[in-house]
Amino acid sequence: MKKITNLLGLLMVVCLFTTATTAQVSVNGKDCLGVWKTVDDETGRTKSHVEIFKKGNNYHAKIIKLLDPQTLKDSGEKRFEDIKCDKCPSDHGKDQSMIGLEMVWDMYKSSDKWKGGSIMDPKKGKVYTCTMWMDDSDAKGNTLMVRGWVAMFYRTQTWYRIN
Q1: Which residues contact 116 (CB under 8 A, 6 or more apart)?
Q2: 142: number of CA atoms within 13 Å, CB side?
Q3: CB atoms within 10 A of CB 95
Q4: Is the pLDDT of residue 12 over 70?
Q5: Per-residue pLDDT for 4 more than 50?
Q6: What spatial distance separates the first Cα and last Cα of the chain, rounded to whole Å?
Q7: Backbone angles phi, psi at 6, to 5 degrees
Q8: What is the CATH number of the domain that holds 57?
Q9: What is the Cα 126 distance to its own chain's centre?
């Protein structure tokens, strides 16, 4: 169970989101499109910036910037730009750069959430079901809750919009 928890944590950490040039679709007047800062829910360290964007009718997210010095150290590389996703599945970016890696895909808007898609933990190469929703306590829509789950095990991270 701890292994799954660690996987989901890193998955969410190295994760998601983009400024849209198309019409904004919102939940309760708030949209998820744009750039978000991901924070590791276990360590509290800022891990990355992700961009959420639309591809057709679905929402996707990609890593646009890595920020955690520990990630760089653990990779053995000298620059964030050189970190590759060596554990990713072959159909989801294996051996490609982490920067630009699409890690959330095929989400759709349903009521007050985005769901039905998947999120990947690039460090472990595992894929999980994903659900996202805006934090109701944030009237401005700058806080996004992102949950990766499998069976009854899940982890939820809080992401913060970059304005």
Answers
A1: 106, 107, 108, 110
A2: 6
A3: 10
A4: no
A5: no
A6: 36
A7: -65, -40
A8: 2.40.128.520
A9: 13
Tokens of 62: 């990609």
Tokens 């799954």 identify what position?
A: 4
The Cα 64–Cα 112 span in angstroms is: 26
Question: Which tokens belong to 14?
Answer: 């190295």
How far apart CA 60 and CA 156 sit, in angstroms, is 18
DSSP letter for each residue of 64-130: EEE--HHHHHHHT-SSGGG-B-TTS-GGGTTTSBSTT-EEEEEEEEETTEEEEEEEEETTTTEEEEE
**What domain range includes position 11?**
2-161
- Say how many domains are in the chain: 1
Q: Which helix (H) or strand (E) holds 77?
A: none
Q: How far, in Å, CA of 52 to CA of 108, rounded?
A: 12
Tokens 């991901």 label which residue? Answer: 38
- 135 vs 40, 66, 151, CA distance in Å? 17, 24, 24
Q: How many residues does the chain have?
A: 163
Taking only the tens place, the pLDDT of each residue in 54-95 is 999 999 999 999 999 999 999 999 999 999 999 999 999 999
State the pTM of this model: 0.80
